[in-house]
Specification:
CDP-glycosylpolyol phosphate:glycosylpolyol glycosylpolyolphosphotransferase; 9-stranded mixed β-sheet; Teichoic_Acid_Biosynth; about 750 residues; 7-stranded parallel β-sheet; globular; alpha/beta
Length: about 750
């Protein structure tokens, strides 16, 4: 018996079916059967499914003689299923990598529940992805297994079949089946949720729910939407036969009214001529199914809507709906006008503040477009407070990142009056990107650009040759911003040459090292051990940090490595730390393929951790592709492995300053199999790895000795032209080591 039966009904989806089936067959968890039900599809979908079945014995195809619709096709697949758990996947959707592994692991940890509910995201034609808006309902902190009575908020989730795994014997016990017609998920999902004695949750995206521009039920105008009434009749008939579930009648009645009126309000569902009839049917449904004692007045915001349905007052319902939409548009326009007025007032305030004297002891800092206390500016700010306590510092960031600020640092809300006052009067401004385009540098102000890494990919005006990567960058505005720089902090001669060519301006290059790496030479083994404990890394484990970079030719985070598979192949002695690029907000890994891996007990998603430097210190080795983190990590003198599966595409799309595969900081893997071999055999931390790292470190980390920030502070803020800290020679540097001897190899299972 396979662990899972994955049922995929197919009709008119030949353009999407390959991606769907590949996403199932490419899973790291392989104990499943894939049942494709060809619902008499008029295109090539049936032939595509047959080709997959010929190549993979896990695939079987059921060709139906007539087109019976989605629900009945699912029933046909269910009749053939032999798995312990059943899953449904629509044929234009896909599984995230590692999804089945995550689902299986969660089922095991929660004692084989009747139902497991997992998350999804909506993926659009332009590549954008948006996680389920009610995903917080899946982040349960109470009992991990429960019934619907203990978590009724789950009824707010989308009522579909494909975001759940069903234990087969539970389905047999309840005895429900999909009906024919539209909205077939309604009399299937509600009964199973109510009848389940044990429900468990998986707080991560496992399904990418494709939002097709045309076709599909949401874009179909038809009288078939009247079939929704039949589906709710079936639901309440089920309830009539289960007195033990009577307590849910009023809740489901409200859900029905909400659903019926939503269909009525959507402009693309019902033919215009049928709308009066549909509303009369809503009224009849209300009267027929209204629970005893139901009081619409108790429903607060929905009460008026329910009353109008009960009265059959369609014109009043439509008029109030139009009025509500008008109020929303008016409020939106008022907010926009108010925003413009506020911006104008604040700009006038900024201009007035520019007429006041500069504050010689005020320095303003920011990093990563106001995303908190981080990177080189943070290292400079901390050192400034340490050796120049007379200086006052302020940091530009939002409330979301306020917790990252150390004590004693004033927070400036971007765009606030305090922000513009500080921008007008501070004598020093330090950032690793650029300040607001309305900021105009005053005579006497000093701007320091620290950058945020050593450049491998093309930057600045060098992107003129790579318009796809430039994404419509306004080069004229960029150069106006660059003209504000007085100093450009550089980590190496390579960086200096790039910055001066990519950002042609009159700044002074400070070849002092990368301030953010100073902590690598100052952290104690005890501090590193505390970091590991805080991240949940077992003290006996080898921790490998996986930090891929952003790709200009991809939308959203799409990991090139199957992390659950890698974790299984490396064995119980290895923990993988997943760090996504800062372009993706914390949790975005959960909204895409990446997080499907984080349900694995030895994969920790550290994308939301505020300090990349701390993650470097907490790890024993780095796995990356083309991220600038490799240059920092080389200065830490710990093993690095590159995974460069798409090197040719990345180089052609973005442009690079040198071939990192020819001069790497450690072993290079082109495939996941090669990566596993490098990590499992010990070559990742062997002599050849150390030799490559030493050459890379000498070239790109000549000044990263723990004193880079001090050099910047003394030169820029204290105006000390001489007597800066001398550069410590490479042989004399001793960056912080892991808090235990580095193992020669992970405790991996033998490779097949």
């Amino acid at each position: 018996m396979p662990r899972f039966s994955v049922i995929v009904p197919v009709y008119h989806v030949q353009a999407y079916l390959h991606a769907c089936l590949d996403s199932v067959l490419g899973q790291s968890f392989g104990d499943f059967e894939l049942i494709v039900v060809d619902d008499c599809s008029p295109d090539g979908s049936g032939e595509i499914a047959d080709a997959y079945a010929a190549r993979d014995r896990r695939v079987s195809v059921l060709h139906l003689a007539d087109n019976v619709g989605l629900g009945m096709a699912r029933n046909a697949g269910l009749a053939r299923a032999t798995g312990d758990y059943v899953l449904f996947l629509d044929s234009d959707d896909t599984y995230a990598p590692g999804a089945l592994q995550a689902i299986a692991a969660r089922i095991d940890r929660t004692g084989r529940p009747d139902l497991l509910i997992f998350d999804y995201d909506r993926t659009y034609w332009n590549g954008e992805a948006e996680r389920n808006q009610f995903s917080a309902l899946l982040a349960r902190t109470g009992p991990q297994v429960f019934s619907l009575d203990q978590h009724p908020g789950l009824l707010r989730l989308i009522m579909v079949a494909w975001n759940k795994a069903y234990r087969r014997d539970f389905l047999d016990k309840v005895g429900v089946a999909f009906p024919a017609g539209y909205y077939e998920d309604t009399p299937w999902t509600y009964p199973l949720l109510m009848a389940a004695e044990t429900i468990a949750l998986l707080d991560q995206v496992c399904v990418h729910y494709r939002q097709r521009r045309k076709r599909g039920i949401l874009h179909t105008t038809s009288r078939r939407h009247f079939e929704i009434f039949k589906q709710y009749d079936l639901l309440f008939a089920f309830l009539d036969g289960r007195p033990d579930l009577e307590r849910w009648r009023t809740v489901l009645f409200r859900r029905m009214l909400d659903h019926l009126t939503t269909v009525f309000n959507l402009p693309d569902r019902l033919p215009r001529s049928s709308r009066p009839e549909y509303f009369r049917r809503c009224r009849a449904q209300y009267r027929k199914l209204r629970p005893e004692g139901f009081d619409f007045a108790l429903s607060r915001r929905s009460g008026v809507r329910y009353l109008l349905v009960a009265l059959g007052a369609r014109r009043t319902f439509q008029a109030l709906g139009a009025l509500h939409r008008l109020r929303l548009r008016t409020a939106q326009r008022a907010r926009a006008a108010g925003g413009r007025l506020r911006a104008g007032v604040l700009h006038a305030y900024y201009l007035a503040q520019r007429r006041r004297p500069l504050d010689p002891d005020l320095a303003v800092f920011s990093a990563y477009w106001d995303r908190g206390y981080a990177c080189n500016p943070a290292a400079v700010e901390g050192t400034l407070r340490e050796i120049a306590p007379h200086m006052r510092t302020a940091w530009v960031t939002t409330e979301e990142y306020a917790h990252t600020l150390p004590p004693g640092v004033t927070r400036l809300q971007p765009g606030s009056a305090a922000y513009w006052k500080a921008m007008a009067r501070a004598s020093y401004l330090v950032s690793n990107v650029n300040f607001h385009h309305r900021y105009a540098k005053r005579p006497g102000q000093t701007n320091v650009q620290t950058h945020h890494g050593t450049p491998l990919k093309h930057m600045g005006v060098d992107l003129l040759q790579h318009p796809a990567a430039a994404h419509g960058l306004d080069f004229e505005r960029m150069l106006r911003h660059v003209d504000r720089w007085d100093y450009s902090v550089s980590a190496s001669r390579h960086s200096s040459l790039v910055w001066e060519r990519a950002y042609p301006a009159a700044f002074t290059c400070l070849e002092y090292g990368q301030p953010r790496t100073d902590v690598f030479h100052r952290a104690t083994p005890e501090e590193v051990l505390a970091l590991r404990d805080g991240l949940g890394i077992p003290r006996t484990a080898t921790a490998l940090l996986y930090a891929p970079t952003h790709r200009d030719y991809q939308s959203g985070f799409l990991p090139a490595i199957d992390l659950p598979r890698l974790a299984e192949e490396l064995g119980p002695g290895v923990v993988l730390l997943l760090r996504t690029h800062y372009f993706y907000p914390p949790g975005d890994a959960a909204g895409t393929a990446g997080t499907a891996g984080t349900a694995h007990p030895r994969i920790i998603d550290v994308s939301g951790h505020p300090s990349a430097e701390e993650l470097c210190l907490a790890s024993d080795g780095l796995i990356t592709d083309y991220s600038s983190l490799m240059f920092d990590y080389a200065g830490l003198d710990r093993p690095i492995v590159l995974h460069t599966a798409d090197w040719d595409t990345y180089r052609a799309t973005r442009g690079v300053y040198f071939d990192v595969t020819a001069h790497p900081p450690g072993p290079v893997a082109r495939t996941q199999e090669e990566l596993t071999d490098i990590l499992a055999t010990g070559s990742w931390s062997g002599p050849r790895s150390a030799q490559l790292r030493a050459a890379f470190r000498a070239r790109f980390c000549p000044y990263d000795d723990g004193h880079a920030a001090e050099r910047v502070v003394r030169r820029v803020f204290l105006r000390e032209d001489g007597g800066l800290p001398a550069v410590v020679p490479l042989p004399d540097r001793h960056p912080t080591a892991p808090p235990r001897p580095l193992p020669t190899r992970p405790a991996a299972r033998p490779l097949p």
